[in-house]
């Protein structure tokens, strides 16, 4: 139905660099590329080369399907005991009067705002508040589930989980079980940043380390939960740090199979302690998405988070391996607007998301958190959606 790309066989056959040609042939034969080959791709692959291959892989896996969901976020607090240098969002506990701290009742009011609306997921992520403990969130999870049992709860980064579980003096396995029993169904991918200590020690020295992050996701997968994984790129890291990060995730995925989606997050430099670092170019963004699609062969999905990239660049990623654009969000997150994203009030109606995907000549499919298909919009006229209040 749709096609945007060059024939990858021709692109590989005509490349003059022998190393790149061998890597391209390996990918076209369906074989996994190595760590060294990942680094070579970052060092040498042009955007058309990486893009043609990534688009081919994407179409092998998903055809033209591009997934999104109908979701909203709850950000319980932006008060945080940690001091990640890239964070534009958090306030230290000593300055908590400049931030927000939502009570269970206030968070339930947000959930109730969506009564009767066809959202399928609530995404709960915030700062690490020293007074919001595991049992506070157990109560929140139980209340959300009692109010709306069909709403899938995807919540808490490994950073928040590590702190609340350790503070409750439970093992990671015990803590995850308590939260799962209370209604937590999936984990978002945040807090991964860059795993390698050479970079992690410079950008977020005090929060959970790579092994801690991976252990929490392993424990969730062992309980039958699914999760996502992010990578914060485009700051101090070198190419090999990115490949090292992806390699650790790929290994865990080989072991558990519990990851749904890999989400590269572009570093935005607005109003944080790393504002002196320039943001990288859109060409480098697209190369990164393409190479991530080629490297993360056991991750079913690659997501571009549109509130962070902006709508137009998110559309562009659909030609470079991406097959998921997250959700409608409904202006319920502040993390990226505070870091300088173009999207100051991130909200898209279903009709807007569908037409954004159609403009990129892809097939919009609404999914739930676990990628069960809810509705395929390929043959639905966008103007029909615009007049139906259920899609606005
Ligand atoms: O871990 C913070 C990132 C993450 C900045 O799993 C920044 O579906 C760029 O994890 N520039 C939290 N990024 C958000 C997150 C997430 C978002 C959307 C979907 C999912 C999912 C997960 O936000 C943090 C950090 O990597 N972040 N500050 C910044 N200045
Ligand atoms: Fe806290 Fe998360 Fe910001 Fe780090 S990125 S300071 S853990 S809110």
Automatic annotation (TrEMBL):
Its job: Radical SAM enzyme that catalyzes the addition of the adenosyl radical to the double bond of 3-[(1-carboxyvinyl)oxy]benzoate, leading to aminodeoxyfutalosine (AFL), a key intermediate in the formation of menaquinone (MK, vitamin K2) from chorismate.
UniProt: [4Fe-4S] cluster binding residues: 80, 84, 87
Biological process, per Gene Ontology: menaquinone biosynthetic process
Biochemical pathway: Quinol/quinone metabolism; menaquinone biosynthesis
E.C. number: 2.5.1.120
Domain Radical SAM core intervals: 66-300
InterPro entries in alphabetical order: Aldolase_TIM (IPR013785), CofH/MnqC-like_C (IPR045567), F420 (IPR034405), FO_synthase_su2 (IPR020050), MqnE (IPR022432), rSAM (IPR007197), rSAM_sf (IPR058240)
GO molecular function per UniProt: 4 iron, 4 sulfur cluster binding; 7,8-didemethyl-8-hydroxy-5-deazariboflavin synthase activity; aminodeoxyfutalosine synthase activity; iron ion binding
Cofactor binding notes: Binds 1 [4Fe-4S] cluster. The cluster is coordinated with 3 cysteines and an exchangeable S-adenosyl-L-methionine.
Family: Belongs to the radical SAM superfamily. MqnE family.
Cofactor(s) essential for the protein: [4Fe-4S] cluster
Keywords: 4Fe-4S, Iron, Iron-sulfur, Menaquinone biosynthesis, Metal-binding, S-adenosyl-L-methionine, Transferase
Lineage: Bacteria, Pseudomonadati, Bacteroidota, Chitinophagia, Chitinophagales
Residues involved in S-adenosyl-L-methionine binding: 86, 193
Catalysis: reaction(s): 3-[(1-carboxyvinyl)-oxy]benzoate + S-adenosyl-L-methionine + H2O = 6-amino-6-deoxyfutalosine + hydrogencarbonate + L-methionine + H(+)
One protein family per Pfam: Radical_SAM
Name the record gives this protein: Aminodeoxyfutalosine synthase
HAMAP family for this protein: MqnE (MF_00993)
Class of the enzyme per the UniProt entry, highest EC level: transferase
